[in-house]
Amino acid sequence: MSIGKIIGLVLGGLVVVLMVYVMSQGGSKTPVTSKFEEQVKPKVQEVKVEEKSEEEVVLDDLKKQAGVNLDQKVSQLYTLRCSSCHGKVGEGTKVGPSISGKSQDYILSKLDDYKNDRVVNSLMKGLLNNISDEEVKSLAEEISKFN
Ligand code: HEC
Fold first, then answer.
1. Would the CB of 84 count as within 6 Å of ligand 1?
2. Tens of pLDDT, residues 113-131
3. Is the CB of 108 under 6 A from ligand 1?
């Protein structure tokens, strides 16, 4: 065997050893990044879950409003006092039932029931303590025209 060949073999061996060393270094880095990912990923996933549920809420509301005429004129009084629970035009929300398509008499008698505890509902009762009879009447008239 010539000296040249021996040197070639030794150099070749060194290259292999170096490659193995480099690869093992690279390998030891992988756990570090995966640890980093473990720390970051759960947070990202949590945020995603919240976004989804928000989207679902919006979607649910949109589905409810589909087929509802949102161009209807609604008084400020209704928007302020009632729309948060009964929807923009009485179509209902998760909190309050739909009150559209009901007659003025029906609405008035219902509101009277709440006010006088014939139907016990703390949400509606609390509301009716802060509203004048005139306002209730005009609201009932307005709601009876929702469709
Ligand atoms: C805080 C939420 C909330 C607000 C604000 C609210 N309501 Fe209600 N309302 C309810 C809930 C809940 C019911 C269902 C109560 C029950 O099942 O007896 C209801 C029931 C009613 C009903 C009877 C519906 C039916 O068919 O039995 C009428 C009418 C009504 N609300 C009118 C109004 C008016 C008018 C306003 C604004 C002055 C208003 N509500 C504001 C929560 C609310």
1. yes
2. 999 999 999 889 888 888 8
3. no
d(CA 96, CA 83): 9
CATH class of 76-144: mainly alpha
97 Cα: distance to centroid of ligand 1 (angstroms): 7
Residue nearest to ligand 1 atom 33, measured at CA: 82
Q: Given 3-state DSSP classes, what are the helix, strand and coil percentages for the chain, each rounded to the nearest 5?
A: 70, 0, 30
Distance CA 6, CA 21 (A): 22
DSSP 7-72: HHHHHHHHHHHHHHHHHHHHHHHHHHHHHHHHHHHHHHHHHHHHHHHHHHHHHHHHHHHTTS-TTS
CB atoms within 10 A of CB 139: 21
Q: What is the DSSP letter of 117?
A: T
Looking at residue 4, its pLDDT comes to 83
Say what percent of the chain tops pLDDT 90.
40
User: Cα of 56 to ligand 1 centre, how many Å?
Assistant: 24
- Residue at 96: amino acid letter: G
